[in-house]
Amino acid sequence: MHPIRRQRLFMVIFIVVIASVAVALLSFALRENINLFYPPSDIVSGEAPKGVRLRAGGMVVADSVMRADDSLFTRFKITDGEATVEVHFTGILPDLFAEGEAAVVMGEIDQGGVFMASEVLAKHDENYTPPEVADAMEQAHQRANASGSDEKAVSVSE
Amino acid sequence: MWQWFHRLGSPRWFYQASGKWLPWLSLLAAILLSVGIAWGLGFAPEDAKQGNSFRIIYIHVPASFLALAGYYVMALAGAVGLIWKMKLADMVMKSAAPIGAILTFVALVTGSIWGKPTWGTYWVWDARITSMLVLFFLYLGVIALQYSYTSQDAASKSSAVLSLVGMVNIPIIYKSVDWWYTLHQPATIKFTEAPSMHPDMFHPLLVMILGFYCFYAVALILNTRVEILNRERRTRWVLDMLLNSKKGSS
Hints:
By secondary structure, chain A is of the alpha+beta class. Helices cover 33% and strands 25% of the residues of chain A.
């Protein structure tokens, strides 16, 4: 390769490397802010800031959703497998909100450690299945549960 | 070894060769896209949780793929233009920017439309969506730089540098869903494992992705040909071609 072209090639590589390093340092410094939400374990352990609006995300605990009869009030628990946070919310829940599914809630933690949400978003996972296949899987899962074998692994933000 | 490379650098050679590729590529793109659309929208099963709204994936995912791949095309063309001073590479870089911008815009809009029924919001500032918006602005920046110099050489140089700097964003977009907590779900299609999608839904998506690649190639070639004619309009071969209205004779 011609020396001038080689020099220009090094210049190009230099630009890319410097830009990468700069952005890597920047996103490392801002990593807390880039995360959209805190997992419940960060909230329970006190790592998440108190008294400010923040988002929490996790799996909606099975059989934890209680709806009021006379209002839009709903309360439920979200978990990341380590810790659980109770969420209170008044409003319309997204269609995909369901027990055993992931959700992201926005709001504030009150004195009692209850998350007072002003917005609830459903988080879809990366799996796409036709209804028949989903039914078949659900039935197989129930059969496995009935025989008292495994417990469904809880995973959040995966 | 470098001969084909230098031949490729000749706008005239590229103009003549691409004229022969275009009909085939366009035909292939048209077939793949129409088969993929009909298959994905009409025949693929609906999703168990999302119902029919998941079908926007057949536009959203291919558009996002090409928005990212197109950025590499633009940045690599920019690098080749910087290093080898190849005129054609500068033209390709300029032509790739608006196509990439439109694809990014399509990805953002379709994602937003899908987000409302699925997540419950049109927009959220998570890492994936924000980095995708940055990509859109990078494309707009390259387009703007192309038109802000009187000298084409200066325009090419500065937009090549911007494209190279912005290239950092591509792996960030791709890995954002793994590195940070985001509302956007992780990738369904992975290079290393089977897709976490039922084959009946995945196959039309694959056809759409291939179709978008062909469509991208067609759009890029067409755009580049316009750019070639525009920049070479005073050269002998373009004038001859116009006068004879016979391709390639000089």
